[in-house]
Protein backbone atom coordinates (compact mmCIF):
# COMPACT_ATOMS: atom_id res chain seq x y z
CA UNK A 1 0.00 0.00 0.00
CA UNK A 2 1.17 3.51 -0.77
CA UNK A 3 -0.09 6.82 0.53
CA UNK A 4 0.25 10.56 0.26
CA UNK A 5 -0.69 13.04 2.98
CA UNK A 6 -2.52 16.17 1.85
CA UNK A 7 -2.91 18.75 4.63
CA UNK A 8 -6.34 20.38 4.23
CA UNK A 9 -8.41 23.14 5.85
CA UNK A 10 -7.09 25.95 8.08
CA UNK A 11 -6.55 23.20 10.73
CA UNK A 12 -3.94 21.47 8.50
CA UNK A 13 -5.71 18.17 8.83
CA UNK A 14 -3.76 15.21 7.40
CA UNK A 15 -6.18 14.04 4.72
CA UNK A 16 -4.62 10.85 3.33
CA UNK A 17 -4.85 9.49 -0.18
CA UNK A 18 -3.99 5.79 0.00
CA UNK A 19 -3.90 3.18 -2.71
CA UNK A 20 -3.15 -0.44 -3.51
CA UNK A 21 -0.09 -0.70 -5.74
CA UNK A 22 -1.38 -3.77 -7.59
CA UNK A 23 -4.75 -2.37 -8.63
CA UNK A 24 -4.20 1.41 -8.33
CA UNK A 25 -7.52 1.52 -6.51
CA UNK A 26 -7.57 4.34 -3.95
CA UNK A 27 -9.43 5.78 -0.98
CA UNK A 28 -9.48 9.26 0.50
CA UNK A 29 -9.38 9.21 4.30
CA UNK A 30 -10.89 12.28 5.99
CA UNK A 31 -11.59 14.75 3.15
CA UNK A 32 -12.11 17.79 5.40
CA UNK A 33 -12.05 20.29 2.52
CA UNK A 34 -9.79 21.71 -0.21
CA UNK A 35 -11.18 19.16 -2.65
CA UNK A 36 -9.25 20.69 -5.57
CA UNK A 37 -5.97 19.76 -3.92
CA UNK A 38 -7.17 16.23 -3.12
CA UNK A 39 -8.33 15.62 -6.70
CA UNK A 40 -5.08 17.05 -8.08
CA UNK A 41 -3.14 14.51 -5.98
CA UNK A 42 -5.39 11.72 -7.31
CA UNK A 43 -4.59 12.79 -10.86
CA UNK A 44 -0.85 13.14 -10.22
CA UNK A 45 -0.62 9.65 -8.70
CA UNK A 46 -2.66 8.13 -11.53
CA UNK A 47 -4.97 6.22 -9.16
CA UNK A 48 -8.69 5.49 -9.29
CA UNK A 49 -10.84 6.64 -6.38
CA UNK A 50 -13.00 3.85 -4.98
CA UNK A 51 -14.28 5.18 -1.68
CA UNK A 52 -14.18 7.73 1.11
CA UNK A 53 -13.16 6.55 4.58
CA UNK A 54 -13.91 8.62 7.70
CA UNK A 55 -12.28 8.37 11.13
CA UNK A 56 -14.81 10.72 12.73
CA UNK A 57 -17.25 13.46 11.78
CA UNK A 58 -15.52 16.66 12.90
CA UNK A 59 -15.62 19.37 10.24
CA UNK A 60 -11.87 19.39 9.49
CA UNK A 61 -12.06 15.64 8.74
CA UNK A 62 -15.50 15.27 7.14
CA UNK A 63 -16.43 18.74 5.81
CA UNK A 64 -15.72 17.88 2.15
CA UNK A 65 -17.35 14.45 2.27
CA UNK A 66 -20.79 15.27 0.84
CA UNK A 67 -19.36 17.25 -2.08
CA UNK A 68 -16.65 14.70 -2.91
CA UNK A 69 -19.04 11.75 -2.67
CA UNK A 70 -21.55 13.49 -4.93
CA UNK A 71 -19.16 14.92 -7.52
CA UNK A 72 -17.11 11.73 -8.02
CA UNK A 73 -19.81 9.21 -7.10
CA UNK A 74 -18.09 7.52 -4.15
CA UNK A 75 -19.44 5.44 -1.27
CA UNK A 76 -18.72 6.65 2.27
CA UNK A 77 -17.43 4.11 4.83
CA UNK A 78 -17.32 5.22 8.46
CA UNK A 79 -17.31 6.52 11.01
CA UNK A 80 -19.11 4.54 13.76
CA UNK A 81 -22.75 5.48 14.29
CA UNK A 82 -21.86 7.24 17.57
CA UNK A 83 -20.88 10.27 15.44
CA UNK A 84 -24.34 10.69 13.87
CA UNK A 85 -24.95 13.84 15.95
CA UNK A 86 -21.80 15.48 14.57
CA UNK A 87 -22.96 14.75 11.01
CA UNK A 88 -26.42 16.15 11.81
CA UNK A 89 -24.70 19.29 13.10
CA UNK A 90 -22.37 19.72 10.08
CA UNK A 91 -23.93 23.09 9.08
CA UNK A 92 -23.47 24.45 12.62
CA UNK A 93 -19.88 23.18 12.69
CA UNK A 94 -19.19 25.18 9.48
CA UNK A 95 -20.55 28.34 11.06
CA UNK A 96 -18.75 27.78 14.36
CA UNK A 97 -15.33 27.31 12.77
CA UNK A 98 -15.78 29.74 9.86
CA UNK A 99 -15.63 27.03 7.20
CA UNK A 100 -17.31 27.38 3.79
CA UNK A 101 -20.87 26.02 3.96
CA UNK A 102 -21.05 22.25 3.70
CA UNK A 103 -23.72 19.57 3.91
CA UNK A 104 -24.41 16.56 6.02
CA UNK A 105 -24.40 13.08 4.47
CA UNK A 106 -25.38 9.53 5.22
CA UNK A 107 -22.55 6.99 5.31
CA UNK A 108 -23.16 4.03 3.02
CA UNK A 109 -21.63 1.89 5.71
CA UNK A 110 -21.37 2.62 9.43
CA UNK A 111 -18.31 0.87 10.89
CA UNK A 112 -17.99 -1.26 14.00
CA UNK A 113 -15.05 -2.67 15.92
CA UNK A 114 -13.61 -5.65 14.04
CA UNK A 115 -15.00 -4.69 10.63
CA UNK A 116 -12.72 -4.71 7.60
CA UNK A 117 -12.43 -2.06 4.90
CA UNK A 118 -10.96 -3.08 1.56
CA UNK A 119 -9.04 -0.83 -0.85
CA UNK A 120 -7.98 -2.90 -3.86
CA UNK A 121 -5.86 -5.74 -2.40
CA UNK A 122 -5.18 -3.82 0.83
CA UNK A 123 -7.25 -4.55 3.89
CA UNK A 124 -7.82 -2.38 6.95
CA UNK A 125 -9.09 -3.53 10.34
CA UNK A 126 -11.53 -1.14 11.99
CA UNK A 127 -10.74 -0.32 15.62
CA UNK A 128 -13.47 1.61 17.45
CA UNK A 129 -11.66 4.18 19.63
CA UNK A 130 -14.19 6.43 21.42
CA UNK A 131 -13.15 9.35 23.62
CA UNK A 132 -12.39 12.26 21.27
CA UNK A 133 -15.77 11.57 19.69
CA UNK A 134 -18.03 8.61 20.55
CA UNK A 135 -17.97 7.24 16.99
CA UNK A 136 -14.24 7.62 16.25
CA UNK A 137 -12.62 4.71 14.38
CA UNK A 138 -9.00 3.90 13.53
CA UNK A 139 -7.95 2.10 10.34
CA UNK A 140 -5.18 -0.47 10.85
CA UNK A 141 -3.28 -2.12 8.00
CA UNK A 142 -1.70 -5.26 9.47
CA UNK A 143 0.38 -6.17 6.41
CA UNK A 144 2.06 -2.76 6.34
CA UNK A 145 2.03 -2.27 10.12
CA UNK A 146 0.52 1.18 9.82
CA UNK A 147 -2.57 2.93 11.14
CA UNK A 148 -4.59 6.04 10.44
CA UNK A 149 -5.65 7.26 13.87
CA UNK A 150 -7.42 10.58 13.24
CA UNK A 151 -7.61 12.67 16.42
CA UNK A 152 -7.16 9.82 18.91
CA UNK A 153 -3.37 10.07 19.24
CA UNK A 154 -0.72 12.55 18.09
CA UNK A 155 3.06 12.58 18.32
CA UNK A 156 3.53 13.78 21.90
CA UNK A 157 -0.15 14.45 22.56
CA UNK A 158 -3.69 13.06 22.48
CA UNK A 159 -7.04 14.24 21.14
CA UNK A 160 -9.18 16.92 22.82
CA UNK A 161 -12.03 15.69 24.98
CA UNK A 162 -13.73 19.01 25.78
CA UNK A 163 -16.29 18.67 22.97
CA UNK A 164 -19.85 17.38 23.54
CA UNK A 165 -19.73 13.65 24.38
CA UNK A 166 -15.94 13.73 24.68
CA UNK A 167 -14.56 11.48 27.44
CA UNK A 168 -10.96 11.68 28.65
CA UNK A 169 -10.88 8.32 30.47
CA UNK A 170 -12.42 6.58 27.49
CA UNK A 171 -9.82 8.13 25.17
CA UNK A 172 -6.94 6.97 27.38
CA UNK A 173 -8.47 3.51 27.50
CA UNK A 174 -8.85 3.43 23.69
CA UNK A 175 -5.17 4.27 23.24
CA UNK A 176 -3.79 1.95 25.91
CA UNK A 177 -6.12 -1.02 25.46
CA UNK A 178 -6.86 -0.96 21.74
CA UNK A 179 -4.06 0.84 19.87
CA UNK A 180 -0.88 0.07 21.82
CA UNK A 181 -1.54 -3.72 21.86
CA UNK A 182 -1.27 -3.62 18.05
CA UNK A 183 2.48 -3.34 18.59
CA UNK A 184 5.38 -0.92 19.12
CA UNK A 185 6.44 -1.15 15.49
CA UNK A 186 3.17 0.19 14.10
CA UNK A 187 3.63 3.52 12.36
CA UNK A 188 0.68 5.88 12.52
CA UNK A 189 -0.58 8.91 10.63
CA UNK A 190 -2.39 11.25 13.03
CA UNK A 191 -5.07 13.75 12.05
CA UNK A 192 -2.63 16.61 12.66
CA UNK A 193 1.15 16.95 12.80
CA UNK A 194 3.96 14.47 12.12
CA UNK A 195 3.72 10.68 11.93
CA UNK A 196 5.15 8.50 14.70
CA UNK A 197 5.06 4.91 15.99
CA UNK A 198 3.11 3.43 18.88
CA UNK A 199 6.45 2.44 20.46
CA UNK A 200 7.70 6.03 20.49
CA UNK A 201 4.45 7.25 22.08
CA UNK A 202 4.45 4.44 24.69
CA UNK A 203 7.85 5.68 25.83
CA UNK A 204 7.66 9.43 25.46
CA UNK A 205 4.06 10.67 25.20
CA UNK A 206 3.35 12.30 28.61
CA UNK A 207 -0.41 11.62 28.34
CA UNK A 208 -0.22 7.85 27.91
CA UNK A 209 3.21 6.49 28.79
ZN1 LIG B 1 -11.56 15.79 15.74
ZN1 LIG C 1 -8.93 17.13 13.66
Tally of domains: 1
How are the strands ordered across the major sheet? 6-7-8-9-12-13
Backbone structural class:
alpha+beta
Q: CATH H-level name... which superfamily?
A: Ribonuclease Z/Hydroxyacylglutathione hydrolase-like
- Second rung of CATH, namely the architecture: 4-Layer Sandwich
CATH topology: Metallo-beta-lactamase, Chain A
In this entry the ligands are: zinc ion
CATH class annotation: Alpha Beta
Shape: globular
From the N-terminal CA to the C-terminal CA, the straight-line distance is 30 Å
Please tally the helical runs, counting DSSP H or I stretches of 4 or more residues.
Answer: 7
Average pLDDT score:
97
Question: How is the main sheet built?
Answer: 6 strands, mixed
Total strand segments: 13
Cα-based radius of gyration, to the nearest Å: 16 Å
Low-confidence stretches: none
Following the backbone from N to C, one meets helices and strands in this order, namely: EEEHEHHEHHEEEEEEHEEH
Residue share in β-strands = 25-35%
Percentage of residues assigned to helices: 25-40%
Characterize the structure shown.
This protein is an alpha+beta fold. It has a single domain (2-204), classed as Ribonuclease Z/Hydroxyacylglutathione hydrolase-like (Metallo-beta-lactamase, Chain A, 4-Layer Sandwich), CATH 3.60.15.10. The chain is built from seven helices and 13 strands. It has helices spanning 35-45, 59-62, 65-72, 84-88, 90-96, 168-179, 198-204; strands at 2-8, 13-19, 25-29, 48-53, 76-77, 116-119, 122-128, 137-141, 146-150, 153-154, 157-158, 187-190, 196-197. The strands form three sheets. The chain has a six-stranded mixed β-sheet with strand order 6-7-8-9-12-13. It has a five-stranded mixed β-sheet with strand order 1-2-3-4-5, covered by helices on one side. The protein has a two-stranded antiparallel ribbon with strand order 10-11. A hairpin with a 5-residue loop joins strand 2 (13-19) and strand 3. The longest helix is centred in the C-terminal third of the chain and has 12 residues, at 168-179. The radius of gyration is 16 Å and the shape is globular. The chain starts with a strand and ends in a 5-residue tail after the last helix. The mean pLDDT is 97. The protein binds zinc ion (2 copies). One zinc ion is lined by residues 56, 58, 132, 151.
Amino acid sequence: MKYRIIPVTPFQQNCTLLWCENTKKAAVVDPGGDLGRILKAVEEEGVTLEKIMLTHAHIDHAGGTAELAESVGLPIEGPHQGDQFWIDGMAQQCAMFNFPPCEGFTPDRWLNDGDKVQVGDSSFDVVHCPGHTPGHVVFYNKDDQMALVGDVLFHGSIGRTDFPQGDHQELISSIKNKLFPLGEAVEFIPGHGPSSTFGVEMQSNPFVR
